[in-house]
Design brief:
single chain; mainly alpha; 5 strands; globular
Length: 495
């Protein structure tokens, strides 16, 4: 039984061994994978500015493990994984720049390890090419240094599937399978289950009981904190799942393919997803993905190594399914795990286009592919650049408004409620509260009681009617925001 990187995958035959090159030469070692991972980290630091402030969801996750502001309301769909990931920085520093650098370096390292898990299944240069394809997508670069869980689900999926394919003949890969599954489930338990469904089906159909148990154990270990919290804070697992479904608009048959298309131009959240479709040039790569995936599968079938390509493609399909057909809105980051799992089979298919079976280059095909990839990179960079500029401006507006509110007396301890209260409250060091909606965590009476002892402000879009209890509060017009601040109590704050 082999225990090296030439180990064959589940259900593969003798033809697979030929596809695993011997470990010799610079380009057959880890160097190409390390170069891709290093370039991924460098690109994040250069293109996604470390001084970009935290976004809405980031402030929720970071506030759970930071003393900069009280912890924001943590809704049912969220998991604590990303909060644990950023804790080594946020527990002792409030620097957003330091957090960005930490996540950029960590995500580069994780990409290297995830790609390395596929060694022996595909040539190293195919793995490096797949990693580069994934790492240069605007959505991958944009979220790489952000405190968001989706990229980490993607990297966990890449590690899980690669190790799963090697695990039957390389028992050390069982640990990688469990670790990857746990990472996915720690970040987003429901996403992890969708990714793992084909793996569990293969293990069951092939009677690979140990492999199926290890995968399941990894999922259960990662999801355990979420499950425990379901019973301690939501009344049970079923209740939390129902609440999570409600927050997400009610899960059920709901074709969101067009919503995802609309978000391709760089909308972080498309809810409701209205408006016109982006320019075709921005969506070409998205429509090309399934075609290239089929090419990779055809190459694998012809080479009699179907399983190692079909399994990641199946996992990509199940990972994307709920976000394409079960929810009524879209965000590009939702499909990140699918993109990661498609990358290696697509790179294998592209290699077949530019290389003959004898290993010679096809000059015409190589030239056409080089031009196509250059255009693809230009589109990705254009969207990324626009996204970063827009995000920096938006987060800068939050910071500017907070500075103004402080000059008006809104300083910690304080409470903000209303429009964008969660992120603005984090910037201000205040608590945030909502009477209704997905983040409801307080009542009108509690807000008024709080106003007797500390500053309270109601935020709204310009011109919007305030809550009835705040109609007489002094109005201050800030940058794209109206703020009504509760009058200071005349008795000096006595309850």
């Amino acid at each position: 039984m082999s225990h090296g990187t030439n180990a064959t995958l589940v259900g593969a035959g003798r033809h697979d061994a030929a596809a695993a090159p011997a470990r010799s030469g610079l380009m057959r070692g880890n160097t190409p994978l390390a170069l891709v991972a290093g370039a991924f980290t460098a690109a994040q630091l250069l293109l996604v500015r470390p001084d970009m402030g935290l976004g809405w969801d980031e402030t929720v996750y970071v506030s759970q493990v930071s003393d900069r502001a009280p912890a924001a309301f943590f809704s049912a769909p969220r998991a604590r994984g990303i909060s644990l990931l950023v804790a080594p920085v946020t527990l002792w520093s409030s620097s957003t720049g330091l957090l960005r650098v930490f996540l950029a370096v960590l995500s580069g390292l994780a990409l290297f390890l995830a790609l390395r898990a596929w060694r022996g299944l595909f040539p190293t240069l195919v793995l490096a090419g797949g990693g580069a394809l994934f790492a240069t997508l605007w959505v991958t670069l944009y979220y790489g240094p952000q405190a968001m869980p989706n990229l980490w689900v993607a990297l966990g999926a890449l590690l899980t599937v690669g190790c799963f394919l090697r695990a039957r003949l390389d028992r050390r890969a069982l640990w990688g399978t469990a670790l990857g599954a746990a990472l996915m489930a720690l970040m987003r338990p429901t996403d992890a289950v969708y990714v793992a469904l084909p793996l569990l089906a293969v293990a069951l159909a092939g009677r690979h009981w140990r492999l199926g148990l290890v995968t399941s154990a990894g999922l259960l270990a990662g999801a355990l904190p979420w499950v425990v919290e379901a019973y301690t804070s939501y009344g049970g697992l079923r209740e939390r799942l129902n609440e999570a479904s409600r927050v997400q608009g009610g899960l059920g048959w709901n074709v969101a393919v067009d919503d995802q298309m609309r978000s391709m131009a760089g909308r972080t959240l498309c809810r409701p997803c209205t408006g016109s479709m982006p320019e075709p040039v921005l969506m070409v790569w998205w429509f090309t993905l399934p075609l290239l995936a089929l090419l990779g599968l055809a190459v694998a079938v012809r080479a009699r190594r179907t399983a190692r390509t079909l399994i990641p493609l199946a996992c990509a399909a199940t990972a994307a399914f709920p976000y394409l057909f079960l929810i009524g809105y879209a965000a590009p980051r939702f499909l990140t795990p699918a993109y990661a799992l498609l990358a290696v089979p697509i790179a294998d298919g592209l290699r077949h286009l530019v290389r003959t079976p004898a290993g010679r280059w096809r000059p015409l095909a190589t030239g056409v592919l080089a031009v196509a990839l250059a255009g693809h990179l230009a589109v990705q960079y254009a969207v990324l650049d626009r996204m970063v500029d827009r995000t920096v401006a938006h987060h800068g507006s939050w910071a500017s408004n907070v500075a103004t509110m402080r000059s008006l007396g809104v300083r910690p301890p304080c409470l903000l409620t209303g429009h964008e209260a969660i992120p603005v409250a984090y910037y201000a060091g205040c608590a945030s509260g909502a009477v209704r909606g997905n983040n409801a965590n307080t009542t009108r009476a509690e807000i008024l009681r709080t106003a007797r002892r500390e500053p309270v402000a109601v935020l709204s879009v310009p011109g919007a009617a305030p809550p009835s209890y705040a109609r007489d509060w002094p109005l201050h017009r800030l940058d794209n925001m109206d703020v009504r601040i509760a009058p200071a109590p005349r008795d000096g704050g006595a309850a």
